[in-house]
Design goal:
mainly alpha, homodimer, 3-stranded mixed sheet, MgtE N-terminal fold, 3 domains
Chain lengths: ~450, ~450
């Protein structure tokens, strides 16, 4: 992980000085020194009047650039602090896809008040993009792509490109469409620059364009773009009409967000969906309590198991000493396995057809780990001064629980995907909980057998 | 997560048919239909003679393109199956940074045997890149950038660009260097296309170039590139000499890998560093056993706690019923908190200066969750038919453990970062283990007090 510190107070002081001197270039340079989210944090803490004067000093374009690369929720927080007219001016300067993300974070009434103040074409573009659900490829695309007709020559295409270059999100791919706007090919800037002027576009374009449907999942689109090493991915409707493009920086954002959500799920809570520092205790509690209660109910089963073996426990109190150790070890093994398997599934390395292979691999690993931990468990039992038979019981259970935890953690996520349930619901705490109850049953059954209880 | 299935057997059959017909275009089109790692998996399972014939049918360039976008370890597995001459030809066609990653995965003798078969300039480029540790910006950069002298005009720069475009990794940024090769500015392709032909490069270039030192951490570089929405990031040495560039697709790869490593660490194992299906049980066990034993030793402490409270346990066996439930709940709360905090730190949302804010937030959340779980715990005690006083003990402990787990999980990662220890060593299992022992002490102290033991 990167280690980075920014002194917000020092930056704010410097910004005030620059604002007092009314030096726009210095203000922009100052802001550019930090990642956009940090820059916004600095602006966010200014009093309203100072903020207004700094924003007008920076200019709409410079502020738009910062907001484009910031988290949408963070950007929205700043936007609502501006006047509607100021907010409209800044949103006009932003790329339509980024502006749409910010507008979608606002209260509907607030969003509408700002949209009506915007210039017609920019507001229209945002309204059109708002039609697509934000988790889809359509919700991530920008309409600012460059497309040329299939009938042009390379130099005509270059001339067309020059006219639109200032507005387009990326000019590095030029898409080729037919008379109905259907995607038929793609040219890279490199192809255009290298080709002889009179060459028809159709002769140099690549016909087999990697593309994605607007209703596809945003993660599918992002991973496709990343896997193929593309700088942009065209988005089409069911009839292959070119609607927009997703750029590499947006794809990286999507993959980051999805990794965050997967991690939060693996940790046993629902995804936060806002930056951590913006989430209050109520939001955090709401995201966590569901799973916590469900796991509590599932774990409550361990109480019944222990009550069922009350006689054994009363006969050999020493058995109690090892309960947390054994179920803890099972939970740890399960957590290691499930995290690795879930991530391998998320990045596309493992699929349902690999179930048997994964299971064999994890059982073999579980046997190795179980053997080592059985020895460790026997040693621990010896240091606690219990009888050798109890030691043997604890060692056998440690090995068995390792194997069992690895099996559950390896197989469950793949089975769930087969059932079309998002395997990320299988969190480390869930595996731990499942292994706790079943592990205790194994423990006492092994104890009954070895200690002849 | 994306849901995708590829039928390896069907693809292999089709590939064989295409190979028999000696149709290179069809073979390439077939391979392009899948993500590179899957395409390699198909090739990887062919017998050696068939592989050789398919590879020669595809051509070095098409195979190089697949390998460039595949995981380096996967690519290396395929490379060693080719003859040294064939491997050398394919590596020559690859971008030097990707080729270097693959060569670094090979046995040193094998790598040397292939390198000596390669053309001099390509082999030299790889040897130079191998100097930089693979986890640094230098280890991720490609030397195939485009740079022009500060004294040129825009049209001279465009002409220079046209000459090198075919070899360069990205031609979308043109870097400007002084006579000593120091980075002094950057031009986008857009600037060049839009500027009037006679304009000096110095008049249109941006001087304040976002750059990274070659010895910087690769994640720092990748996050900088992603945060600023750049397509490439220049890499310089201590004297600002331009050494290479990191492109957006490589940055996305870095962020994916780092997310995978963080997740594996959070799950309680050391990072695998190879694709999951390539890791055998021995590798998996080796990555997991260290933490597992350490956690086992730490958890063994719970045995001592329980033995210390042996009299209480013997007096009230019912106290045992709730041990897994209480420590499990503490572990779950801790897991939720630590996952969220570690991820927020990884993406740069939270830093050490936020320690107090994070702690207050998590304590408030812990109080909310603790209150709900105390009620749930009392209800569970009641259904198990224990005395109300035991119920009260269990409820109080549930609330207290929630608060305690949230505190430990929120504060520990930030403190470790302050001590320059990678906070990702704080796994969910580690928090669970820490809370288990301390939680039991709380449980029995509360029991002693409320039950007057």
């Amino acid at each position: 992980m990167a280690i980075e510190q920014i002194d917000v107070d020092a930056v704010r002081e410097e910004l005030r000085r620059v604002a007092a001197e009314r030096d726009p270039a210095a203000a922009r340079a100052l802001l550019r020194r930090w990642p956009p989210d940090d820059a916004i944090a600095v602006l966010d803490e200014l009093p309203a009047d100072e903020l207004a004067s700094v924003v007008s000093l920076l200019g709409d374009e410079a502020l738009a650039e910062v907001l484009e690369h910031a988290n949408a929720a963070t950007a929205a927080r700043l936007i609502v602090k501006l006047s509607h007219a100021q907010a409209a001016d800044v949103l006009e300067e932003m790329a339509p896809d980024d502006a749409t993300d910010v507008v979608e974070e606002l209260e509907p009434a607030e969003a509408e008040a700002i949209l009506v103040q915007m210039d017609r074409p920019e507001a229209e573009a945002i309204r059109e993009l708002m039609v697509y659900p934000s988790e889809t490829a359509g919700g991530r695309m920008t309409p600012d792509f460059v497309a040329v007709g299939a009938g042009l020559t390379v130099d005509q295409a270059l001339a067309a490109l020059r006219r639109v270059a200032a507005e387009a999100e990326t000019i590095y791919y030029v898409y080729v469409t037919d008379a109905d706007g259907r995607l038929v090919g793609v040219l890279s800037m490199r192809d255009l620059v290298l080709a002889r002027p009179g060459t028809p576009v159709e002769a140099v374009m690549v016909r087999d364009v990697v593309r994605v449907r607007a209703d596809a999942d945003q993660e599918t689109a992002a991973r496709l773009l990343a896997d193929r090493g593309l700088l942009a991915l065209p988005v089409v409707d069911a009839e292959e009409h070119l609607l927009g493009i997703i750029t590499a920086d947006d794809a990286a954002d999507v993959l980051e967000e999805e990794a965050t959500e997967d991690m939060e799920r693996l940790g046993g809570s629902r995804p936060l969906e806002v930056p951590y520092l913006l989430a209050g205790p109520l939001t955090l509690a709401r995201k966590r309590i569901g799973w916590l209660l469900l796991l509590f109910v599932a774990e409550a089963y361990t109480g019944s198991v222990l009550r069922a073996f009350e006689n054994e426990l009363q006969a050999v109190v020493a058995l109690t000493f090892f309960i947390p150790l054994l179920i803890g070890t099972g939970g740890n093994t399960g957590s290691q396995t499930v995290t690795t398997v879930i991530r391998a599934m998320a990045v596309g390395e493992v699929q349902f057809r690999d179930l048997f292979r994964v299971w064999v691999k994890e059982v073999a690993t579980g046997l190795l780990l179980g053997a080592v931990l059985a020895v460790a468990a026997f040693a621990r039992a010896w240091t606690l001064g219990v009888s050798p038979n109890i030691g043997l019981t604890v060692a056998t259970t440690a090995g068995a629980i390792c194997l069992w935890a690895a099996t559950v953690a390896a197989v469950l996520p793949l089975l769930l995907r087969r059932l079309r349930i998002d395997p990320a619901v299988v969190s480390a705490p869930l595996i731990t909980t499942l292994v706790d109850g079943t592990g205790l049953v194994m423990y006492f059954e092994i104890a009954r057998f070895l200690l002849r209880l």
